[in-house]
Amino acid sequence: MADHEVRTLTDLEALRTLAHPRRQRILDHLSAHGPATSADLARDLDLNTGATSYHLRELAKHGFVEEVPEKARGRERWWRHVRADVRFPLRSEQDEQTRAVMDELQARAYSEDIAAFRHALATSEPGGWGDAFPFSRGTITVTLTQLAEFFEEYVALVMRYGDSAEHSPEARRVHTRFLAFPDIAD
């Protein structure tokens, strides 16, 4: 169904690596700003350079980042985010440890997303990008199969726009989120 690489994380060590808050900050920075050295990341994120290098190696071990050899000079190593459609095991496939890591990862991610959204609202000026806060809240009645299809269509749409190699000078990064959950009353 997907025309892009889908990577399902089932390894608990890889999930723990991804769930680490500092590593998430590093990934977010590399995704937003492009390749960087550990020294650049440490400075920009107010982290220790040695610890940042360690976190980069751990992220690379699991394929979340990779070196950019063409930018290296001497001992200087450059790193970039590896763009991928990362999926997680279904809750029914998770053992207790995996579920704990996933629950922590998701709760922290949504909490950070809400904080970033509130900050964006509070600091935006009306007009232009300040008006770019589309919002949709809805409810659908679907089968499990239909929900899976709906999700795949959403991911394909995000990947289509995210993979665009040519961006106009007016283009900006826009955060998108998908959240769906069954109604507890049902």
Structure description:
It is a single chain. This protein has 186 residues and is mostly helical. It is built from six helices and five strands. A three-stranded antiparallel beta sheet has the order 2-4-3. It has a two-stranded parallel ribbon with strand order 1-5. Helix 3 crosses helix 4. It starts with 5 loop residues before the first strand and ends in a 24-residue tail after the last helix.
Q: Which band does the percent of strand residues land in?
A: 5-15%
Q: Give me the Rg, rounded.
A: 18 Å
Write down the overall mean pLDDT.
90
Write down the overall geometry.
globular
Summarize this structure briefly.
By secondary structure, this protein is mainly α. It has 6 helices and 5 strands; from the N terminus they run βααβααβββαα.
SSE diagram, text form:
Layout: E1 6-8, H1 12-19, H2 21-33, E2 36-37, H3 38-45, H4 49-61, E3 65-67, E4 78-81, E5 85-87, H5 96-123, H6 144-162
Parallel strand pairs: 1-5
Antiparallel strand pairs: 2-4, 3-4
Helix pairs in contact: 1-5, 3-4
Index terms:
single chain, 3-stranded antiparallel beta sheet, two-stranded parallel sheet, mainly alpha, 186 residues, 8% strand
